[in-house]
Each structure stands twice: as structure tokens, then as C-alpha cells.
Amino acid sequence: MGLFKNLFSSNNESKEQPQNKPNLDWYKLTKVEQLDNLKQISNEKLVVIFKHSTRCGISRMVWNQFQAGADFPKEQVELFYLDLLSYRDVSDAITQDFQVLHQSPQLILLQHEEVVHHASHSAIVPSSVNSFLST
């Protein structure tokens, strides 16, 4: 798993740390090439992709609410954050590769290289992630 962490965290700016949840490590998606690695990671852990429009107040509210309620075991979940305004090509590739209609904000869960859940707006809740974790 160290190889994957190196691919997604080449410097300190590659993680977004929410102020109220320092235990959540979000890795930024910035390149289309990262999607193949996400699929590989999804064979070992649940992959969570949060697509966020940084200029949208609703998206920011959903992001903050999701983070406030999120408490996932690091050994079972890998978290990825996409600023879709800065990396629209990555967002478009997600739509094409995973066959999920683009929305913002949007939560996409991958397990064994397949989308097992996706939600947008008020349907984005931490409990949807928890339902795919082993207890």
C-alpha cells in the first residue's frame, strides 16, 4: 500500500485535512492517470471519491456535513477529493470510466474496481460509507 500512498501524496499539499477531523486523510485527485490506481486500491479497501465544486455553497455545506459525521477506519477506507473546477478532465474521466452521471457534490464508492454506491447533494451521508465496511 506504500506505493499507492506515494503516488497520491508527493508533497504536503496533496492531502486536504479538515479542521474538525484530523484523522481523515483526503488525497487529491489531480490526474486522469490516478483512476487506474484507484481501481487497484479498491481491491484492498473501500475507495471513497468526493467530487466538490469549490464555488458552490451547497457543495461546501455537504462537504462540511459529511466530514463532521465521518469517522472511518483508515485500514478499511481510502479517501479521495476532487476539486472538479480545477480538474474537470478528471471529473469527465470518472464519468466515463465508472459510468456515473456527473453531479456536484457527488460521492462515489468503489469496491473491487466497481462502483457500489453513488449519491449527490443531501443523499451524501457518512452512513452510506459505513454500510460497506466490515465490522
UniProtKB/TrEMBL annotation:
Pfam families assigned: BrxC (PF11009)
Gene3D superfamilies in UniProt: Glutaredoxin
Domain of life, per lineage: Bacteria
Record InterPro entries: BrxC (IPR022551), Thioredoxin-like_sf (IPR036249)
Protein's name in the database: Thioredoxin family protein
